[in-house]
Specification:
Layout (H helix, E strand, L loop, with lengths): L7 E23 L5 E18 L3 E16 L4 E16 L2 E2 L9 E17 L6 E22 L8 H13 L5 H7 L1
Antiparallel strand pairs: 1-5, 1-7, 2-3, 3-4, 6-7
Length: about 180
């Protein structure tokens, strides 16, 4: 154990001990009821996700709904098809503090780019719709760590003074205070 210098103190605190960021693109195949003629619109809604920490990687698992408005029957009719899709992104920690002193870690994730439709096209075989979706996350891992701080030389109290101050504080206590409160 390192020798404690009088002008330093070690503080145990929660701090960001890991960070990571990831941009992803996914292609999803949507199966409409009718053979599509053209794509009229596409949007992504109802995004939900959860995170877990697994050995220097934060796993983000989530889902969202893809809605595609398309025409069919030689562009004479339209319909909206909706499908829920799931994804799993593994985000490596690019910044990692190896001196975390606890195994209890908290993971925070937020989207920098909510899932968003980039492009929707009729598939080459003409029966399905292929949707390109992008998303981006930033994650932070919070853990307990030790911080070493400098103490102002004028405020440094040696152990003997510390014990004397504690003893003096106990001398001023009224030992009958608690007993009299209980008896009433």
């Amino acid at each position: 154990m390192p020798v404690m210098e009088k002008n330093y103190r070690e503080i145990i605190t929660k701090a960001v001990c890991g960070k990571g960021k990831k941009f992803s693109q996914s292609a999803h195949t949507i199966s409409p009821l009718h053979k599509p003629s053209s794509i009229l619109g596409c949007w992504v809604i109802n995004h939900k996700f959860r995170t877990t920490y697994q050995k220097d990687v934060v796993v983000v698992e989530g889902s969202y709904d893809i809605n595609v408005w398309y025409s069919y029957n030689n562009n004479t009719k339209t319909e909206v098809v909706s499908e829920s899709v799931t994804y799993r992104d593994e985000i490596a920690l690019t910044i990692k503090d190896k001196k975390v002193i606890s195994d209890r870690l908290e993971v925070y994730a937020r989207t920098l780019q909510e899932p968003n439709s980039l492009e929707a096209n009729v598939s080459p075989n003409g029966n399905k719709i292929v949707v390109q979706v992008e998303r981006e996350f930033i994650v932070e891992v919070i853990g307990e760590t030790k911080v070493r701080v400098t103490v102002d030389e004028d405020d440094v109290i040696d152990e003997d003074e510390w014990e004397e101050e504690i003893d003096e504080a106990f001398e001023d206590l009224d030992s009958e205070f608690l007993v009299s409160e209980i008896e009433e």
